[in-house]
Protein: L-Fucosyltransferase
Amino acid sequence: MQIMNIAGVMFVGRSPGIVQLLTLVVLVLLGLFYWPFKLTGYNIDFEKYSRITENVNSRSSNCSINSNCSTDVTVVAQFKSLVLRLTGINRTSVVMRLESTLHGAADQLPPLLQILQEFEAKYKCEACVDSRPSPRTVLDFRVRLEHNVHKLGLAMPAIVMNPKGRLGNQMGEYATIYALRKIYNATVVRKPVRRHLEEAFSHLTIPSLERFKEGDWVAAGFDSHRSTFNNVQLAAAGLLGPHPFITPGTPFETCIFAAFRAELREEFRFDDNVTQQAEARLRRVREATAQVEVEGAGLLVTVGIHVRLTDYPHHMESLYSVRNITNCYGSYMKNAINYFLQRHVNVAFLVASDDVNSTRSLIDELRINNVFFSEGTPLVDMYALSMCDHHIITLGTYGFWTAFLGSGTTIFPVIDSTTGYRYSKTLYDSAGLGPPDFVPIPMVQ
Ligand SMILES: *[C@@H]1O[C@H](CO)[C@@H](O)[C@H](O)[C@H]1NC(C)=O
Ligand SMILES: *[C@@H]1O[C@H](CO)[C@@H](O)[C@H](O)[C@H]1NC(C)=O
Ligand SMILES: *[C@@H]1O[C@H](CO)[C@@H](O)[C@H](O)[C@H]1NC(C)=O
Ligand SMILES: *[C@@H]1O[C@H](CO)[C@@H](O)[C@H](O)[C@H]1NC(C)=O
Ligand SMILES: *[C@@H]1O[C@H](CO)[C@@H](O)[C@H](O)[C@H]1NC(C)=O
Ligand SMILES: *[C@@H]1O[C@H](CO)[C@@H](O)[C@H](O)[C@H]1NC(C)=O
Ligand SMILES: *[C@@H]1O[C@H](CO)[C@@H](O)[C@H](O)[C@H]1NC(C)=O
Structure:
């Protein structure tokens, strides 16, 4: 596609001569050659990685897989302690899996150990700043072990997504395993559950299993003391052995999946009946504001607002001791709306919420013009908000998707990180999602 575009530009207005034709052939061949290895938006150098593994394989080692020579034992111990230090993993079952996998692959470790040591010195030392673009994997992504093992008819390691939560959470779980497939070439599949995600999207490329038996799958283990899913990354990298793993909890690893924003927009492509209803809502906003358009006010700028309520005030209070979210939203929303009113003359706001009545009173108090409510299904609202030029989101994961699937500027709320609430600034920072695209505004109590 890209190549045809390049060629199209090159040949415009001229009949192709032999030089141009040769150039086209070379471009097409280059495209074919690079296509399976290159990741859109992030250049993971699989070629370089294959060179490293070739070196490993051709190295004549005296330490065979089934024997313990002293070099192996030292390398395994160093490698293990470095991995545990970098990941913060201390769950006994995971440490044991790591240990036994490393012993079995001892002869492959020396070059990988060197990569890890350089990785730590560059990004994880005390004075270091991890400025990598997403995917910011917990270890250097080249550190992976291939296992020529099949189980359950799948190449190992495999990760099955166990859908938890509602639409926004499930999209995060899907995006996380999508990224694991792209980064580590891990096999990823879905547990068949016809709720939320599966009902919503018919273009998902990660296959759903036909049969699923819980007992076939190994729990990858959630690092509860840190609220991270580093275990799942290690599993996908093959460092926990050739096993089928099941995702724990609700992984929402923006740090790795933000790299695949364009591809995820394709995965989460809405069906025609949803897009048509959403587009009709946006058309109505434009028509209604066209009547009051002021001379010289410029093009209409639309801002999608999502206000998450219902169970959330209780959720935030009981789990994170953040009291009265409804009240906090008031001043946050005022600042967020002003951000756009200060920058554009002609602004319309399209609002969606899981509690429209409370949101109406909240917005009414702000006394702003051009406010419209989209009261569609969750999918129609998500698509309508994502199609707006800019976004204001509140807490929860649904709002994140209305912004992430769209473009423009997103205002998101910052909650005091000591509360332990994950879906706030830490999550955006860890993915390198910052200004001008993602602008944090504090939400004070
Ligand atoms: C490996 O074995 C060969 C022959 O047995 C020996 O000459 C060589 O020193 C050994 N290398 C190491 C690293 O132990
Ligand atoms: C190698 O040594 C480690 C610990 O030193 C042990 O756990 C492992 O089972 C040994 N492997 C073999 C194949 O003997
Ligand atoms: C893991 O570390 C956390 C925090 O440092 C600690 O509370 C927990 O007991 C540790 N777990 C194990 C299995 O060592
Ligand atoms: C990815 O894994 C498959 C097996 O699942 C293997 O056939 C393929 O060669 C791997 N690709 C890369 C780039 O490592
Ligand atoms: C859209 O159409 C599909 C298939 O015709 C149907 O399953 C789905 O429920 C529809 N969605 C909406 C929001 O109408
Ligand atoms: C939360 O704040 C709103 C708005 O200030 C107020 O009306 C409501 O009574 C408060 N609720 C609680 C439980 O404190
Ligand atoms: C929202 O307000 C409307 C009109 O006042 C009312 O009919 C409806 O029952 C309210 N909905 C909820 C969920 O409270």
